[in-house]
Amino acid sequence: MIVIIAPQRGSYKLILFDGRSVRETGVFELAHSTRGYRPTNLKLRASGRRNYQNVPTKKLIDLIRGSDVRITKPEPGLLAFLGDFQVPPAEVKLCRICLLEDKVTPLSKKNGVRFGREHICMECAERELRREMGYVGRFGTRSFSHIRSLLDSYRDVDRVLSLLQPEQRDSSQTLFDRMEAVEPIDTQHITQLPVPPAFAKASGVEYLTPVQQLAVNAGLLERQDLLVVSATASGKTFVGEMAGLKNLLEGKGRLLFLVPLVALANQKYLRFRERYKGIASVSLQTGRSRLNLPETRPVGERNTRAEIIVGTYEGVDTVFRNGKTLADIGTVVIDEVQNLEEPERGHRLDGLIARIKYASPKAQFLYLSATIGAPSVLARKLGAKLVRYDSRPVPLERHLIFCEKKKKIQFIKSMVKEEFGRRSSKGYHGQTIVFTNARSRCHTLADALGQNVARPYHSGLTSQERRQVEDLFASQKIACVVTTAALAAGVDFPASQVIFDALAMGIKWLSVQEFNQMLGRAGRPDFHDQGRIVILAEPGATYSKTSKATEEEMAILLLKGEMEEVAPVYDLEGSSEEFAANAVACHGDEAQIQWMERLMVGSLEPVLQTLIETKLVKRKKGEIELTDLARVMARHFIGVEKLMRVRDLVREMEGPLMIAAEIDGTKAGEERS
After folding, report:
1. Cα 508 vs. chain centroid, distance in angstroms?
2. Identical fold between 190-389 and 572-672
3. Which of these, 25, 113, 207, 266, has the minimum number of CB atoms within 10 Å of its CB?
């Protein structure tokens, strides 16, 4: 028989263990007398029984004399008592919590977990974690699996619990992983490249970055079409500038530089105009506001004959959808090409690329992305050579903290302040981008941080207001911008830290591609020594009643997620819209429309018969004749289903505003939320 004695709050726990199971348990005290320490108040009970029975202390002495005695702590009084009866105890490491439940669980390096000043077994550690997680919020199954894996890794309950208690934040304990920067490859000086001297001088660049060198090695300056995949701030934009300006100055055509958002187009336009003002004219092609106000007037020159045209996808596509074209294009740069997978916008970008290829078959196409799944597959579909540079220019830490929504503001405040207090070896203060899911939340967070610290930045602001925020951030007069996830691709702030207040865009969870695009904003080699990502995930939180996932589960999925292949999604609505746009661009030539469809990455659904039945088009001897309504469909980026809905509403309702409200009411409501 093994007798286990464990000190507990002024008394001693006694366990009689046969090596497999507990036979009896008891408690006793030690009293000091003239004869030394002696046991008193011995009580025993059989395993499974509730009530203790008073037992003569002589029975304890008989037990320890005839048994293998183990103690969990070598207390002086206990050692003296055992020594008086010539009982040599052996010290044993057992889980104290299990002992309280009359279980014997030996502790070892494999199953021991630190809990405060002691060690407990893994099973008890898991129970403690579940109990603490219950206080914080409703965690999902994936969340506990992640936390259980952290427990396996850290072997420290308190360290794992720090993720659930942001007021006790320790950056070393909240670290999810670290993405290291690698030593850059050898690169050439720009004067060593076969580029015009005027461009080399105007560019302001001396040595290429690694991804730029890899692009040159892959044939960038020999008019090779390329898909360039590399981290944000690794120098992808200049890849397009090198090819575009070389082709332009050598008389091989103009540069068309396409971006997804107006804010980003404005930034590129102003930068190119300043940099290349002595060697090329620059213009801007974005959508126009119907309100003639100072803050909504165009930012730049709107000349489609300029030598460098910077535009948004839709701004440039409007040219083709109106039956016009852009001649003499020698280089086309598609920035953020991962937008091909967006449900509503992907087919439009796919169609635009095909229409530009149709109009400029000899142009060099360069596709740029920081985050894309299965890039080799997309490169093959685009007819381009893949250039991939996986390492980051600066190391990036990713942190995950679970906390309640009411604590997020307090936590963001402290992190923004801490980051701004750091100064990099390049002499810049650390600055923060906070991503959230709604405009109203942008203002709530910015107001809480204070106007001198942070400003909101979203598409609801005027271009003048956004430029003011950009200037304040660039001059380091504010420590933080708070923006919506919807503007992630257009935010070009040199931030060292990115904080996720939410993991949704409106009421929709971020995709892995979107998430990686956003976290790539942290850390710029010209400004910072490293980047930092912090996700604040609220257990049990969701943004839609139909969503089964919760925010803390999404955090883990996004951090561990693999990006899927980029593939535009085509339904009847998108297919009919692109068919009509292609028909306008091809002036109704059916053979050319079919050829243009083969230039697309995705596959259109067969929609011609539907368009004929709805009397939107007519088919005559290889020609597709579009009605005025079909041209409206192409010009205004809508498909046959929405067009038919508008036609029905015209009969039912009065005034265009009522019709617009009826069609977009639900979507607008989601945007406002």
Report:
1. 13
2. no
3. 207
pLDDT at 149: 77
Residues 6+ apart with CB under 8 A from 530: 394, 395, 396, 397, 496, 523
| pLDDT the model gives residue 241 | 97
What is the average pLDDT across 40-53? Answer: 87
Give this prediction's pTM. Answer: 0.64
3-class secondary structure, 105: coil
CATH topology assigned to domain 396-540+548-560: Rossmann fold (3.40.50)
User: In CATH, what is the architecture of 190-389?
Assistant: 3-Layer(aba) Sandwich (3.40)
Q: Are 562 and 512 in contact (CB under 8 A)?
A: yes
Tokens of 275: 């940099």
pLDDT digits (tens, 9 = 90+) for 159-174: 787 766 655 556 777 8
Number of other residues whose CB lies within 10 A of the CB of residue 305: 11
Query: Counting every residue, how long is the chain?
Result: 673
Token pair 């000349």 is found at: 303
Q: Are 388 and 523 in contact (CB under 8 A)?
A: no
Which of these, 600, 535, 525, 612, lies nearest to 576 by C-alpha position?
612
The token duo for 601 is: 């990455």
Angle among Cα 581, 583, 588 to the nearest 5 degrees reads 155
pLDDT tens column, 420-460: 999 999 999 999 999 999 999 999 999 999 999 999 998 88
Instruction: Give domain 572-672's CATH number out of 3.40.1000, 1.10.10, 3.30.420, 2.120.10.
Output: 1.10.10
Phi, psi of 347 (to 5 degrees): -65, -30
Q: Are 350 and 597 in contact (CB under 8 A)?
A: no
Q: How far apart are CA 238 and CA 203, in angstroms?
A: 9
Domain boundaries, the chain: 2-100, 113-164, 190-389, 396-540+548-560, 572-672
Characterize the bridge pairing of strands 396-402 and 175-179.
antiparallel
Candidates 426, 425, 431; CA nearest to 497 is: 431
